[in-house]
Amino acid sequence: MLRNFLTVGSWTMLSRVLGLIRDQLLAIFLGAGPLQDAYLTALRLPNMFRRLFGEGAFNAAFVPMFTAKYEKEGQAAALQFAGQALSALVAWLVVLTVLAEIFMPSIIHVIAWGYTGFRFTEAVALTRITFPYMVLICAAALVSGVLNGRGKFGAASAAYVTFNIIGIVAILAGAYLWHNTAVSSAWGVTISGFVQLGALYWAAHRLGIAPHLVRPSFSKDIKALLRRMGPGLVGSGVTQLNLTIDGIIASQLPAGAPSLLYFADRINQLPLGVLGSAAGTALLPLLTKHIANNDRESVHTSLNRAIDYTLLLTLPAMMGLISLAPYIMAALFRFGHFTTEDAILSGQSLQAYALGLPAFILIKVLSPGFFASGDTATPVRIGFFTLGLNLVLNLLLYRPLAHIGPPLASTLAAFVNVGILAIILHRRGMFSLDPKLRNRSLCILGASLLMALWIVAARKFLMPNLLMWHGLERFIGVMSLISFGGLVYVIALDRLKIIKIRDVKAALQRRIARKRSG
């Protein structure tokens, strides 16, 4: 599991880094204003479907069914099922896309009801360009599920890197060749869908497991898939739906607020996407196998170790982001049209998002405990409850707290969500915190707090005017603080005997020696 976890995490990290570069270019050329708001609205719908299908509901429903069919009935039957699923998926998504293109103004009124005038007109035009990406990325998610179901995580994870590579090229082309960054970037989204689907299909074809389009039909297997997938759209995608509510509420705030929330969320998505996606993707097939074998002890162990791995990196990420949020935003985005005030305000939103980082990731870790046994009904009930809670909290907080209200509401709702998931799994006898995880979690939290205190002290006494530094100097200053914090954290872990530095060093030396000898 750890190898698959690291494989998915490494490719996802590369994708997030490229995504960060892409967002920096957006900040430079569009800033935080009406046009950026409109473009980000156009990006929101297809991205939500990508995360729901690629990282959530479809993967949760399809992978266990495909894996079970492959093991019990063989490759031919499994690929026939995959082809039927692909055909049904593409057919109804094409219909949905045609309807969306026709009624796009009404859709924008729903997802951004505060938009008027220029923001509304641009949002409609740009979303019409990006919406077909939904069909392509959902088809790609199915092919990715086939690869993941056979334990081929690398190819599926690598394909998603192309989204940001093409996005970067599209932004630069729009800025310097066509002088219309927003439109060019929107076309880049849709073009990347063709490239991702093509790359995944090629990888599956090379392995002899590529599904083929057939005449759509509602077979017994497809009906079972739809029953599992439908509720899971909310159950596994509740984080994304909460963020969508944030966007709807943010559209009521002054122009630029949706952009501030977007850039804050993108930084928060670096650890969230890497750890949450990696844990959920690698854990689901493993839990499915344990549950099929009625091995409850292994289910307990797998969930505890997955939580251990994620907390080891999530808690310091949370503390680091809270400690340095405005400075990180300034170091990464304070260029071109993105001002110092934008960095400060967006940093405040980031702090509210970062506070909920452990909860956001633990939702992705605990949800496979339900999906692996075919239970998508329970997560959907929890999802509806927390969605309602998030909406209520948003309405209560967005006026007094402005740009901090929506992310804080999502954070509070996420903690409630993960608490309910954990309690139900515990009552079913599928999860309980073992003594090892309890002790290590407290030590990891202590090390993370110590790291944060040292970072704040170093910034206050050594770099009191860091926010006013310029360009590369500011970036180096922030990276120095992050590196210093990382060093403090590693030393603290070593002293608390969570991870021994000499053991890690010895393991790396053995790995290098094996590669040289091989």
Features:
globular; MurJ; mainly alpha; transmembrane helix; cell wall biogenesis/degradation; 2 domains; 84% helix; 518 residues
Topology:
Elements: H1 2-30, H2 34-55, H3 57-73, H4 75-102, H5 104-111, H6 117-130, H7 133-149, H8 153-159, H9 161-176, H10 181-206, H11 220-235, H12 238-250, H13 257-292, H14 296-333, H15 340-355, H16 357-371, H17 377-401, H18 405-427, H19 435-462, H20 471-495, H21 501-517
Helix pairs in contact: 1-8, 1-9, 1-13, 2-3, 2-6, 2-7, 2-10, 2-12, 2-13, 3-4, 3-7, 3-11, 3-13, 4-7, 5-6, 6-10, 7-8, 7-10, 9-10, 11-17, 12-17, 12-18, 13-14, 13-15, 13-16, 14-15, 14-16, 14-19, 14-20, 15-18, 16-18, 17-18, 19-20
Quick overview:
The protein has 518 residues and is an all-alpha fold.
What does this entry look like structurally?
There is one protein chain. By secondary structure, the chain is mainly alpha-helical. It folds into 2 domains: 2-433, no CATH class; 435-518, no CATH class. Helices cover 84% and strands 0% of the residues. The chain has 21 helices and no strands. Helix 1 runs antiparallel to helix 13 and helix 19 runs antiparallel to helix 20 (471-495). It is globular. The model has no long low-confidence stretch (mean pLDDT 84).
Shape from CA axes?
globular
Largest sheet: none
Radius of gyration (CA) equals 23 Å
User: Total domains, how many?
Assistant: 2
The helix-and-strand class reads mainly alpha
Uncertain residue ranges: none
Q: Number of DSSP helices?
A: 21
